[in-house]
Amino acid sequence: MLLDKIEELLKEVSALTAQNAGDVEQLRLKYLSKKGEINALMSEFRNVAADQKKAVGMKINELKQLAQNRINELKDQLETSEAQSDDIDLTRTAYPISLGTRHPLTLVKNEIIDIFARMGFTLYQGPEIDDDQHVFTMLNFAADHPARDMQDTFFIERSNTMDVTKNVLLRSHTSNDEAHYMSTHKPPIRVLCPGRVYRNEAISARAHCFFHQVEGLYVDRNVSFTDLKQVLLTFAREMFGAGTKIRLRPSYFPFTEPSAEMDISCNICGGEGCGFCKHTGWVEILGCGMVDPHDLEACGIDSSVYTGYAFGMGVERIANLKYRVSDLRLFSENDTRFLREFEGA
Asked: What DSSP character marks residue 47?
């Protein structure tokens, strides 16, 4: 009976298979451990007749040797298979992975930042979700100003209909960063505020519901409009070429007085007049002006001692002028055919 059992185990061990290291360990425990099948045979071996002990003992040793060899063989096969196989991650991007490049808006934004950094401006980035107090109220927007209307602004929460300053919204300009900075820093202030802004506008080739701005602020003693004009002229020539001209046209902004729109001579036709500049020779690129005393006082700065200027430009507008992109939507569609055109920029 014992010999029959040993023969069955010999056939069983000869056919052993394993899928992983865990299976191999389970087989070792089943056959070779103290509580395993082969050790159990040794307990039965004591009851074997004396004339059969030699034959049964040889069979048990044969079984033990076969089990050890087979388990070691399975272990070696698995280790060799793992060493030769490549790990395949099905979540990875397919090979070959092409080398990317910076987005055109990032290229332009970084160039703007670099130009103003060389003129002493430091970088400051505030929140994209902000309260009405910093986006509008501290910047001299009246409580019934159209910019607060639901048609123009993305409100997230209107917690108090009687107090507009408590409203929470997606900022419509990065001027809110200037309000935050002036409230927590004392002059002299020379800061540049880049970031994404949001407005409720119909999406077209010339407009989008979100875009990017870079705004600048300088507050100190005896700051004048002449300082503003010189800084903007330097920027225009650094960005668009040494022969670029600028002109300032009177305009209106709640947070600056006096205010102006700045045009540059068309960098496509050289100011001669073309379809891009509507045959005027000039292209508008930004708004600017002297900081309204109300804004300084609202941020805790004495307007009788300090003056300042501010300016703001759309990064997409500058990118359009620099790279002559006809459709604003291309910047946010992630079309790799379009983005590859800037690999050498």
From this structure: T
Look at residues 74, 86, 64, 79 and name the one whose alpha carbon lies nearest to residue 10: 64
Name the token pair of 76: 């070696």
Half-sphere exposure of residue 106, counting CA atoms within 13 Å on the CB side? 8
**Cα atoms found within 13 Å of the Cα of residue 204, Cβ hemisphere only:** 5
User: pTM for this structure?
Assistant: 0.69
CA distances (Å), 225 to each of 214, 261, 324, in order? 19, 13, 31
Buried/exposed 266-287: b ≥16 CB within 10 Å, e otherwise: bbeeebeeeeebeeebbbbbbb
- Residue pointed to by tokens 């307990």: 43
Q: Is 304 helix (H, G, I), strand (E, B) or coil?
A: coil
What is the torsional sign of CA 264, 270, 271, 277? negative
* pLDDT tens-place string over residues 84-102: 655 667 777 777 777 778 8
| 257 labeled binding residue | yes
Model confidence over 198-215: pLDDT tens digits? Answer: 998 888 877 789 999 999
Under DSSP, is residue 204 helix (H, G, I), strand (E, B) or coil?
A: coil
At residue 300's C-alpha, the angle toward residues 297 and 303, to 5°, is: 40
Helices (H), the chain: 2-14, 21-32, 37-45, 53-84, 104-117, 132-135, 175-184, 225-240, 293-298, 315-323, 336-339
